[in-house]
Amino acid sequence: MANPARDTSKKSVPPARSGGIATERSPEFSLPLRFFGLGIAAYFVAMLGIAFVGPALTGSPWNPRILGLTHVMTLGAIVGMIMGASYQMVPVVLLAPIWNQRLGKLSFWVFLPGVVAMVVGFWGSMPAWLGIGATLAGTAIAAFLVNILVSLIRGARWNMVGAFLVTALLCLGAAVTLGMIRAFGYLDPAAAWRIPNALTVHAHLAAFGCASLLIFGVSYRLIPMFAVTSEIDRRGWIVLALAGAGILGITGGSLLEAAVCMRAGATLAAASACLWAWDAAAMFRGRIRKKLDPGLTYVATAIGWLILAAGMGLALAWGWIPPGITPDRWAIAYALVGFIGFIGFSIIGQFHKIMPFLAWYHRYSSLVGKTKVPLIKDIYDEKLAWYGYWAAQAGLAIGVGSVLAGAGLLVRVAGVLLALGALAAATMTYQTLKR
């Protein structure tokens, strides 16, 4: 009788041996790690930048330094983390090995100078640098999208999370395309293609269509995994449908300058965010592990910031801005709540769970049962992580209030606190890798 364990007549992908967020299908650790490193470094620079620009955040969102700082956060931190997380999670959640790891590694070295060039171009109002940066960053993101999409086509086992992922990547592609058109428009303003409300569309495609939807989808798997609770995803398809309709409404209404359509889109997007928040809160309420660590506390708190962002977005869309606050200040505060409070804190929270596990898994998993190995929670300083959490929450609360009140000096204080929170997250990363 043939021994199936020794039958090598047919090659196949190794079975997925669950390591939580790492399996035998996972890529080399160095692939997601380089993007994670860029993401956490850019996050720290962005928070420190808030302290530096301070009073400018109480003025116009078109300030060149604000645009530069925004792209440190969105392009460097958020997109960098999304790329790293996608390379790590696609083989685990959708059981699709990464098509070309070499392409992923090479694209990083195109993406990094592209981010730097774009930030320099915005900060110094240098159109040539913007053009170079847009070309490099756009090329790298296109390579990433091709790599992930080919991986999915070749072997994904489709589920709801996959649908969220594909929708998010399509929105990322659209946001990058629009951003490149805008960037090249700076090179020759006379020949620039006029796109109505381009900044609104670009920001919402990136922040809600890409980053938020990716967080929504992946959280349906990661929150139950980390909090030890049941998966509550029966409303996930409704969340995705509402979000997709909301994105179409915001995009179409903004481009066509149709206020009714844009407001309807904003309402649908807010409804999808609130419905997902309800599911996420239910998963937290049903957890077996009652005590939350810093990572899960970041994620839980981000749900509250999301509700605030949804309310502020609706107020902006419907013109319900309180008297005494300019639309520009409200828009900047809204961006802070969305980009940092929900997207940033969600990413940092999940990163506090993912990074220690991956570092432990790649260093110690083969030694289990052979020698004494540390627990995952022992490879970084949890107390420092708690200090970072409280500094970040206080910093954002002060920052949002200061922007709305027009108190520029207090924005600097907020930036320092946010930078301390980011530094704690960066220290956690260093500690896990060093250990």
Description:
With 435 residues, the protein is mainly α. The chain has one domain (19-367, 375-434): Cytochrome c oxidase-like, subunit I domain (Cytochrome C Oxidase, Chain A, Up-down Bundle), CATH 1.20.210. The protein contains 12 helices and no strands. It has helices at 30-53, 64-93, 101-123, 127-155, 160-187, 198-227, 236-255, 259-285, 294-318, 327-364, 382-405, 408-434. It is globular and about 65 Å long. The termini are far apart. Mean pLDDT is 91; it is low at 1-19.
The name of the CATH architecture is Up-down Bundle
Distance between the termini: 48 Å
Count of discrete alpha- or pi-helical segments spanning 4 or more residues: 12
Q: Given this structure, which CATH class is correct? A: Mainly Alpha
CA radius of gyration:
21 Å
Residue-averaged pLDDT: 91
Query: In the CATH scheme, what's the topology name?
Result: Cytochrome C Oxidase, Chain A
CATH superfamily name? Cytochrome c oxidase-like, subunit I domain
- Which percent range describes the beta-strand content? under 5%
Let me know the number of strands.
Answer: 0
Poorly predicted runs are: 1-19
Major β-sheet annotation: none
Principal-axis shape equals globular
Structural class by sheet pairing and helices: mainly alpha
